[in-house]
Amino acid sequence: MHPQPPRRTTHAYGTPKNLLVYDRWGSFGRPVVLLHGLFYDRTIWWPVAAELTGPCTVIAVDLPGHGQSAARGDNDLDALARDLAVLVRDLELHRAPVLVGQGEGALLAEAFAAAYATRAVLTFDEPAEAPPESPEQHQAGADLAGVPAAYRQFAVPRGDRRLRDSYRCWFSKGVPARVAKRPGFPHLRAPARFAATLSDLI
Predict the structure, then answer these.
(1) pLDDT tens-digit readout, 90-100
(2) Which residues form the AB hydrolase-1 domain (predicted)?
(3) pTM exceeding the 0.85 threshold for the entire prediction
């Protein structure tokens, strides 16, 4: 008989002005930090997190202004990486995390890895040189053909155009040269396979 995966619990970290809300699965092992892209929220990671097993603690964070995390006037990339590092440190797991970034979350994962001890970084659906104009534009550019119907609810961008402006500073730092692709959501196409890939990085 296989053990049940850890149950999801929701937590809040920080002060009301810089509040970060996150879901957590597990309480020991290596931290695996899951970061969503612009206009999404932490729920985009639920199918993958439910599949991850083994010696890890999974953290899916709502970026500022998304989901239940507080909006900030300044979403400075380095400051947010610092806040994320403090959150990971306070988990008291004493291991360098694995960072996984989807969309614009890839920029945060890379900024974190450049400044703090990190076991591995995995990014996908990396952004273009400018953020999308709106959630509707993001949705129109997404490739959902291979995402099972049951998981498409997790790939619906939310929020408003003001979010785009609050994250514009991420792009002024210069996005690494890469070919932007239509968001394909490989973690939702095959959550168990994606979780197995992550397990290899732990």
Answers:
(1) 999 999 999 99
(2) 32-179
(3) yes
